[in-house]
Amino acid sequence: MIDYDKVLSDKIKSIKPSGIRKFFDIAGTMEDVISLGVGEPDFNTPWAIRKSAIQVLERKHIIYGPNKGIAPLRNTISVHIEKKHGVKYDPDKEVIVTVGGSEAIDLTVRGLLDPGDEVLVVEPCFVCYAPLVELAGGVPVSVPTRIENNFKLTLEDFKDKITDRTKLLILPFPNNPTGAVMTREDLEPIADFLRDTDIMVLTDEIYSELTYGRKHFSIIELEGMRERTIYVNGFSKAYAMTGWRLGYVTAPEPIITQISKIHQYGIMCSPFISQNAAVEALTACDAEVAKMVDEYNTRRRYLVGEFNRLGLTCFNPEGAFYVFPCIKSTGLTSEEFCERLLFEERVAAVPGSAFGDSGEGYMRISYAYSLKHLMEAIRRIEKFLKKLENEKK
Amino acid sequence: MNDIIKILQQNARISNTALGEMLGISAEEAAAQIDQLEKSGVIKGYSVIVDDDLYDKSTVYATIELKVTPQRDCGFDDIAKTIMMYDEVESVSLMSSGAYDLAVEVKGNNLKDVAFFVSERLATIDGILSTSTHFILKKYKEKGIFIDDEEPDERGLG
């Protein structure tokens, strides 16, 4: 008998599985569960994109393609970023098309970190950053944001955590799970500080098209920040293309040259059909995206209103498709709250603690669901809260 | 499209509070806007969409295509108005098709009822040249609402 424990690396064994999964594995075995858990759009990929993929299948030879991605897509990405942010990336030397935003994050941390290098991870945040940093030999340093600041990052939040090993700041805005966004005014003091250091920024802007009320602002627009920023984005959220597995990373040439080796050896190239179809997404789908954003916005306003009405204080998220209501008033931890909500009222939500310690006392509610679905969920949550209220008496 | 109408078309029983939240206005303002839409005649009424397989299996629906001789001065209006007075008639529409003029949706308790209605009531109206009846076998979606159960959600948790 092989002792697999001895075969497997200590490092991989020490990595915890995603905290989002836990409840959903249970929920999957139950009947009549209303889920508020998913992190992907309920809309289908716009037809123009799907049609373009069908044409590729009919007419083209499905090949590997260039390591960094097909030229038309790299060109389109470059034009798209320049149009949005006024920042130019050389499509031949400063862009890599990746297998989703996640690969882009992985490439970045593996390309930058030496053993023991520290990475500032702004929390609450999506679950992948700290494990990927650890796998790359780095040390994640958690930087909690606070509700008083609407979960925005301030210089004070991380200034004291900087050491001579600090190499990278991960900036995940618009934020999953809080929905917080960073404006130019919020980013300026941070950029002012970083300009005098060698700390690099990984800006994960996967939700950048999903903002409500104001246009997304990127840190790469600020003076001197393009040269110290690795910009990550993708097609999954804005264009409802999660299953197409397509993202991209743009950065100064020396960085792209090095990290493209990881992509070259580990992945080879991103899916050829998806890449061809994605050109259509960036060039012809603005109206579809606007329509989805409009629908998300209606749901967002509804949920914020309802959670506040129910006494679960909910700050007004301006991006992504999540609301992050506070459940501290119930006296339960977020794990307890979500577990009881699932077993007693059959509503599945993700405990805030899955996104870092600073998420404790909150839950993540996704509104990538129809209004009908959300209204039924609210009805059940209201019933659950009344029950908790009665228990206290 | 008006956002209020869009939401009401999905669920006309929604509370003014929820409606207001969705639109970013107060409940009172939402109520006032609905009131205005009703008074100005934009909103004609509220109805319920029923799955007849669960409610009343024997109910039969049919679409009837009518060829009509237009009348002097009033075109098709007079005949359409005569037809729509019958309780069995769910909808009457004037079509641009060359093949027929009026499309009439009829609901009956059974097949015989509908057949009787077409031959005895509709076909006998002056000016109706011919009728062509199509029975509806199954409704999949009505007024934007799925009649069958929606497909299971297979999305992941990213």
Could you provide a short overview of the structure?
The complex is a heterodimer of chains A (393) and B (158). Chain A is an alpha/beta fold and 393 residues long.
Topology:
The complex is a heterodimer of chains A (393) and B (158).
Chain A: H1 4-7, H2 10-14, H3 21-27, E1 34-35, H4 47-59, H5 71-85, E2 95-98, H6 100-112, E3 118-123, H7 129-135, E4 139-144, H8 155-159, E5 166-171, H9 184-194, E6 200-204, E7 229-234, E8 247-250, H10 253-266, H11 272-284, H12 286-309, E9 322-323, H13 334-345, E10 347-348, E11 350-351, E12 363-366, H14 371-392
Helix pairs in contact in A: 4-11, 5-11, 6-7, 6-10
Chain B: H1 3-10, H2 16-23, H3 27-39, H4 52-55, E1 60-68, H5 77-84, E2 89-94, E3 102-108, H6 111-122, E4 128-135, E5 141-142, E6 145-146
Antiparallel strand pairs in B: 1-3, 1-4, 2-3, 5-6
Word description of this protein:
- The complex is a heterodimer of chains A (393) and B (158).
- Chain A is an alpha/beta fold and 393 residues long.
- Chain A is built from 14 helices and 12 strands.
- In chain A, helix 4 (47-59) runs antiparallel to helix 11 (272-284) and helix 5 packs parallel to helix 11.
- The model of chain A has no long low-confidence stretch (mean pLDDT 95).
- Chain B is α+β, with helices and mostly antiparallel strands.
- Chain B has 2 domains: 2-39; 52-139, Lrp/AsnC effector binding domain/regulation of amino acid metabolism (RAM) domain (Alpha-Beta Plaits, 2-Layer Sandwich).
- Chain B is built from 6 helices and 6 strands; from the N terminus they run H-H-H-H-E-H-E-E-H-E-E-E.
- Chain B has a 4-stranded antiparallel beta sheet with strand order 2-3-1-4. A two-stranded antiparallel ribbon of chain B has the order 5-6.
- In chain B, strand 5 (141-142) and strand 6 (145-146) form a beta hairpin.
- The mean pLDDT of chain B is 90.
- The chains are: A alpha/beta (393), B alpha+beta (158).
**Approximately how much beta-strand content do the residues of chain B carry?**
15-25%
Describe the strand arrangement of the main beta sheet of chain B, using strand numbers.
Answer: 2-3-1-4
Biggest sheet: strand arrangement of chain A:
2-8-7-6-5-3-4
- The termini of chain A sit apart by 57 Å
Work out the strand percent of chain A: 5-15%
Count all strands of chain A and give the number: 12
- Secondary-structure element pattern of chain B, one letter each: HHHHEHEEHEEE
For the largest beta-sheet of chain B, the strand count, sense and barrel status come to:
4 strands, antiparallel
* Count of alpha and pi helical runs of chain A: 14
Provide the low-confidence segments of chain B as ranges: none
Q: What letter string, H or E per element, gives the SSE order of chain A?
A: HHHEHHEHEHEHEHEEEHHHEHEEEH
Kindly report the name of the CATH homologous superfamily of the largest domain in chain B. Answer: Lrp/AsnC effector binding domain/regulation of amino acid metabolism (RAM) domain
- Global morphology of chain B: globular
CATH class category name of the largest domain in chain B: Alpha Beta
End-to-end CA span of chain B: 33 Å
Given the structure, what is the number of helices of chain B?
A: 6
Poorly predicted runs of chain A are none
Oligomer: heterodimer
